[in-house]
Specification:
There is one protein chain. By secondary structure, this protein is an alpha+beta fold. Helices cover about 15% and strands about 40% of the residues. The strands form five sheets. It has a 15-stranded mixed sheet. Strands 18, 24, 25, 26 and 27 form a five-stranded antiparallel sheet that branches. It has a four-stranded antiparallel sheet with strand order 20-21-19-28, with no helix packed on it. α6 crosses α9 (about 405-415), α7 (about 365-380) packs antiparallel against α9 and α8 (about 390-400) packs across α9 (about 405-415).
Length: about 500
């Protein structure tokens, strides 16, 4: 029996915004000096040394949460824990988010092991890791069904969990610059980052003045700013879209989280346009003027073309008949890659394979099979906002989620059925705004777009693709949030 569904578009921003933007803003990271020689103290901390730092999180002046970071000296290094608590509104629904990181670091604050969790209601994502030699071993899932992944490290990284101790033991100077590799457990990637000591200035917190160093970090093309006092204690951190963290106390940090005054983050990240579209789900051609052209913007196919900053999107046609039957067994290595399982897209899982076979009922035509899988996902996933890392196994367990969950399980089922598939991320129009969104593409003689949230194949032309790839590539979207603007020039 089919269920009646009223869909709400939930953008990829819900996951990326919190896991990447806030994670970068919150982290007080250990920096490995590169371009300057620092004068650091050689003072050894006693084994009973413990520090604790609290900060309040604000968005455009409204308090949305707090963070607490604890550092403890242990034999041979440090034990660090960081907790992030957030109260947010997504599409009108109040949601509580709790992120926990615990890491063991050596004397140089480089990573030995970690445990990371992200919880929102009953849904939880957990991952742990351990460094052995030049490899980082990742572990995820229940013990009996645990997944492992090995990442080759170009250099041993630190982790984004409260590494202020470096500043407390070094003398900073204006003009100092640092380069450091940081491992992010949410994306399972290690990325180099550069931070500079830009100036020394006076800032005010709660009516009190502090002399502080202003540190600036470039993150995905945007500038994050940090202020630390002369002892290296973090005072204030400021990111884009109005995010600010301010030093606090245990008693004060947890106060003032009024749910009635929360900002809806779907609306906050949406791109407003002056012209309204009639029947957007039926639009087959759209032409927009961009204020900037993202470097990741795909324009090498028939669906999207670019002339200067004017982007044209055309709804693609469907193949009359596919040249292959499922499963795809061609020799194109680029397509075979999109049949392989990934750590969060477990297309080799027995339950997922069995479900894919049950859905397609022996259908050999890839187009027909893809439509059947699309319909199953649309009809069997409750459409609610979820703040977590999309995991195909967990999605089947809870059968609920936003566009991220729909796109993830659709990818897993398509691959399990033998159809090359990938996730794409971009924006889609609804009610005078473009919202950040995730959908899919399946290869059926050419890449055909699919949206399981809206039950479209191919998708309408208001779907503007910004990037395709896994979560490690989708992080690039974060740099566009709040800076990308559209002007609608034409549509039909």
């Amino acid at each position: 029996m089919r269920r009646s569904v009223i869909y709400k578009i939930s953008g990829i921003v819900i996951v990326l915004f919190w896991l990447f933007v806030l994670a970068e803003l919150v982290k007080r990271t250990h920096f490995t000096p590169s371009s300057v020689k620092l004068t650091c103290t050689d003072e050894k901390m006693p084994l009973d040394y413990i520090s604790e730092e609290w900060m309040e999180v604000f968005v455009r002046g409204r308090k949305v949460g707090y963070t607490v970071t604890r550092l403890k000296k242990i034999e041979g290094g440090f034990d660090v824990t960081e907790e992030i608590c957030l109260g947010v509104t997504l599409m009108g629904s109040a949601t509580e988010i709790l992120s926990n990181t615990r890491a063991q670091l050596d004397e140089g604050f480089l990573l030995n092991s970690f445990d990371f969790s992200l919880c929102s209601g009953p849904i939880a994502f957990r991952i742990s890791g351990k460094v052995k030699g030049n490899n980082l071993y990742l572990f995820m899932g229940e013990e009996a069904r645990e997944e492992t992944k090995v990442i080759r490290l170009p250099s041993r990284p630190t982790i984004s969990a409260g590494m202020t101790q470096f500043f407390k033991s070094c003398e900073l100077r204006i003009g100092d610059s640092f380069t450091f590799p940081v491992f992010d457990p949410a994306t399972m990637t290690t990325n180099p980052t550069i931070i500079k000591v830009a100036a020394k200035e006076v800032i005010k917190l709660d009516g009190k003045s502090y002399e502080a160093f202003r540190l600036e970090m470039n993150f995905l093309g945007r500038t994050l700013v940090f202020w630390v006092d002369e002892r290296g204690v973090s005072l204030k951190e400021k990111g884009f879209m109005g995010f600010t963290l301010v030093r606090s106390t245990p008693a004060k940090a947890k106060l003032g989280l009024d749910g009635s005054k929360r900002i809806d983050f779907c609306e906050l990240s949406a791109i407003k346009v002056a012209k309204r579209l009639r029947d957007p789900r039926k639009v087959s051609y759209l032409r927009v003027q961009l204020n900037q052209v993202p470097s990741s913007l795909p324009v090498d196919g028939p669906r999207q073309s670019l002339n200067g900053k004017a982007l044209a999107v055309r709804k693609e046609g469907l193949p009359v008949k596919a040249s292959y039957t499922v499963p795809y067994e061609g020799g194109d290595n680029r397509l075979l890659y999109y049949l392989k399982p990934e750590m969060l897209i477990q297309s080799e899982d027995k339950e997922i394979i069995a479900l894919a076979k049950e859905i397609v009922e022996g259908t050999a035509d890839p187009f027909t099979a893809a439509k059947m899988i699309l319909a199953w996902v649309f009809e069997n996933l409750e459409k609610v906002p979820v703040v977590s890392i999309p995991d195909a196994r967990e999605i089947l367990k809870y059968r609920k989620g936003d566009c991220n969950e729909h796109a993830t399980i659709l990818t897993a089922l398509l691959r399990a059925a033998g159809i090359p598939a990938r996730i794409v991320v971009g924006v889609v129009y609804k009610d005078g705004r473009f919202y950040y969104h995730a959908w899919n593409e399946a290869y059926i003689d050419k890449w055909i777009s699919m949206d399981a949230t809206l039950k479209q194949m191919p998708v309408d032309a208001t779907h503007i693709k910004l990037i395709d790839g896994g979560i490690e590539k989708q992080i690039q979207i974060v740099g566009m949030i709040g800076s990308l603007e559209f002007t609608i020039l034409d549509y039909r």
